[in-house]
Amino acid sequence: MVRRSIALAVAGAMLAPAVPVAAGSAKQAAHVRTAVAGFDAARLQELDTALSGVVAKGDVPGLTYMLVRHGKVVAFNSFGQASPARGLEQSNQTIFRIFSMTKPITGVAMMMLYEDGKWKLDDPITKFLPEMANLRVISGVDPSGKPITLPVKRPPTMRELMSHTAGFGYGLLGRNPVDDMFRARAVNGSKNLAEVAAKVADIPLKFQPGEGWDYSIAVDLQARIVEVITGENYGAYLQRRVLGPLGMKDTAFYVPAEKVGRFADLYGLDPKSGKIVLLPPSFAPNFNFTDPNRQQSGGGGLVSTASDYGRFCQMILNGGKLGKVRLLKPETIALMGQDVIPQGVRPDNGLVGGMGTTAFGFGPGVGFGLDFMVIKDPKSARLPVGKGTLSWGGAAGTWFWIDPENDLYFIGMIQRLGGSAGMTDLPGLSQRLVYLAMTQP
């Protein structure tokens, strides 16, 4: 196994080393750096050993992780290969499909328009998506299996759209009439966001708006609303107002030819052999990430690097600002981190639980804000993170958390559909080891 480490890598101008490094004393500098950031270097090595061990075991071909505290890079390491077939080593510049880690970025894009006064949380979504005027809710199926539906009591609100409480389905997993219709109509294989909204408008909701929580197509609908409000292509808007200003130079909806040499392959678990196998671009609709015309999915379409996503995380941690660039006000970031799941609503853990991790499961002390999972009470949630931690992950096993209470963020990058299912719980393991190594609040 090949291991590469950029111990003092900088994920942006604001991420300078904690102290100057004397020549020939990299090991000593690592100890000084971790001490300044409030970590025990020896304990932090256990994190390195554990994550590199997952690669050595063959559970994933490559893994990259980044830990930042007090604005300083504590650890930024890569192991294994980004593409065994092409002989590409994994590096800190490797590009990954981040799938649903796209969602918080779309949430920020939406909240910028919120601050611009373009929409309000209690606005009905029909104000921007008139095709949703006749939504219905499934109430059962008849003897032939045909869905029985009722009219919605009211249209979903923007707040509900941004918190997965609007009632929409997704069609990713699960056998139920709503998700079956998503698959039958190839919603996730649509050419563009307008087509997504048009298809979804004819599919019933899973529950009345505000009366449940279910992981959904809602963030793609948010991206469509950005297009409706601005009159811009979503990718162009995102580049102009979010990705460009943050300096996220490798984050996009496709990988251009000149960057394919840094693009990791995608793997999945073969249930027969129990081993990971290479998945081709044709594996699923819209999976060809080298196609510049692929759908600009606000819910799962971006590729990125660990350092790029780190700039996004640091902006959130800084209350909406990165260096001299301010995207959002601190109070807007705080609003995104407030749990908005209605009292008495029990979130559906099916799709989330299928990723094989304890870090993103719903239960006591865990809520959901505006496009982020929120840890309200770490003790009740039985998680080592600080109160108010924001987090999420992606379908190919990427994960992150942002901990304002402890002024840190962590990003993990792999490319294995299903994430940690059937293997080591990477998000849970990394959280446990990071906080065991932390010596100062």
Compact overview of the structure:
With 441 residues, this protein is an alpha+beta fold.
Description:
- The protein has helices at 26-36, 41-57, 102-115, 158-161, 177-184, 193-200, 218-230, 234-246, 306-317, 330-336, 350-353, 378-381, 426-437, and strands spanning 3-5, 62-69, 72-83, 88-89, 96-97, 136-141, 147-151, 267-269, 276-278, 303-304, 321-322, 325-326, 366-368, 373-375, 390-393, 399-403, 408-413.
- It has a domain at 109-230: 3-Layer(aba) Sandwich (Beta-lactamase), CATH 3.40.710.
- It is built from 13 helices and 17 strands.
- The longest helix is centred in the first third of the chain and has 17 residues, at 41-57.
- β15 (390-393) and β16 (399-403) form a beta hairpin.
- It has 441 residues and is α+β, with helices and mostly antiparallel strands.
- Strands 1, 2, 3, 4, 13, 14, 15, 16 and 17 form a nine-stranded antiparallel sheet that branches.
- α3 (102-115) packs parallel to α7 (218-230) and α3 packs across α8 (234-246).
Radius of gyration: 21 Å
At the fourth level of CATH, the homologous superfamily of the domain at 109-230 is DD-peptidase/beta-lactamase superfamily
Structural class category: alpha+beta
**How would you classify the quaternary structure?**
single chain
CATH class of the domain at 109-230: Alpha Beta
What is the N-to-C order of secondary-structure elements (H for helix, E for strand)?
Answer: EHHEEEEHEEHHHHHEEEHEEHHEEHEEEH
Task: Estimate the strand proportion.
Answer: 15-25%
Residue-averaged pLDDT: 91
CATH architecture level-2 label of the domain at 109-230: 3-Layer(aba) Sandwich
CATH topology of the domain at 109-230: Beta-lactamase
Instruction: State the helicity in percent bands.
Output: 25-40%
Stretches where pLDDT falls below 50 for ≥5 residues? 1-29
What is the overall silhouette?
Answer: globular
Termini distance?
35 Å
Total DSSP E strands? 17
Number of helices: 13
Largest sheet: 9 strands, antiparallel
